[in-house]
């Protein structure tokens, strides 16, 4: 069972940037489609971005398009979320998620991902 550990969260001013990382324990990381979700207390966990096992296909939520970029390095068993032009409404706990499959399309459905990290807090001040 893969273990996912996020890092890189923190406090940043509006307009600033952060890069989240998610390190996977599994040596067969390249067999996993990966995603980033976020959750504000009291609200549903929402899809932010996803990437297929090969890295060839990505998908970003409309709310973050042009500002966030998901990428992965299979040699380092790590998936990243580069975030620029951050807004206060981006404040949330960000979760890394993994699905043991090799797809050609990105799934944005939460239930499609079996493995989750513990989350990292991102706070954007205005």
Main attributes of the structure:
126 residues; 7-stranded mixed β-sheet; 4-stranded antiparallel β-sheet; globular
Describe it:
The protein has 126 residues and is mostly beta strands. 0% of the residues lie in helices and 48% in strands. The chain contains no helices and 11 strands. The strands form 2 sheets. Strands 2, 4, 5, 6, 9, 10 and 11 form a 7-stranded mixed β-sheet that branches. Strand 7 and strand 8 form a beta hairpin. The chain is globular and about 40 Å long.
Write the layout of secondary structure elements.
Elements lengths: L3 E4 L2 E4 L4 E7 L7 E8 L6 E6 L6 E3 L7 E6 L4 E6 L8 E9 L14 E2 L3 E6 L1
Parallel strand pairs: 2-11
Antiparallel strand pairs: 1-3, 3-8, 4-5, 4-9, 5-6, 7-8, 9-10, 9-11
């Amino acid at each position: 069972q893969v273990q996912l550990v996020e890092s890189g969260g923190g406090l940043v001013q509006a307009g600033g940037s952060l890069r989240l990382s998610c390190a996977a324990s599994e040596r067969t990381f390249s067999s996993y489609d990966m995603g980033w979700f976020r959750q504000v207390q009291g609200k549903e966990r929402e899809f932010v971005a996803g990437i297929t096992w090969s890295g060839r296909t990505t998908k970003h939520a409309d709310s973050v398009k042009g500002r966030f970029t998901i990428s992965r390095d299979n040699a380092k068993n790590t998936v990243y979320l580069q975030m620029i032009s951050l807004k206060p409404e981006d404040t949330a706990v960000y979760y890394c998620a993994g699905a043991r499959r090799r797809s050609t399309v990105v799934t944005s459905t939460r239930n499609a991902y079996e493995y989750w990290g513990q989350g990292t807090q991102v706070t954007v001040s205005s």
